[in-house]
Amino acid sequence: MSNFILYIVTDSNRKHFEIGFSTDIMTTVMKLQKFNSLIFNQRPSLNRIIYTEAFPSLEAAKKKIDELQHFTAMQIERLIRKSNPNWNNLFPQPHRDFAKRGASYAA
Fold first, then answer.
1. Residue 31: how many CA atoms within 13 Å on its side-chain side?
2. Is 62 part of a structural domain of the chain?
3. This protein's superkingdom (predicted)?
């Protein structure tokens, strides 16, 4: 029996929300990171999972998603702040080290 995980994703400005569910949250995190790094468009970069909730069945997860779709932005924010008051990314991206370039100055 697999768990269905409901998640809420937001952008870095916390203005846009997207609600979805997954059976494998780590795969979903990787897809979100890959999708946002490959596509440059006018859509906000939804890359921070800030809320998760597990359900035992698909029906229960879909029912909760339908309920959340009717919430106002303030109600969604209130729900998030109950479990994640600082809006931390629950699945942070691995830190990438960029090669430092040496500075060269003209003599």
1. 7
2. yes
3. Bacteria
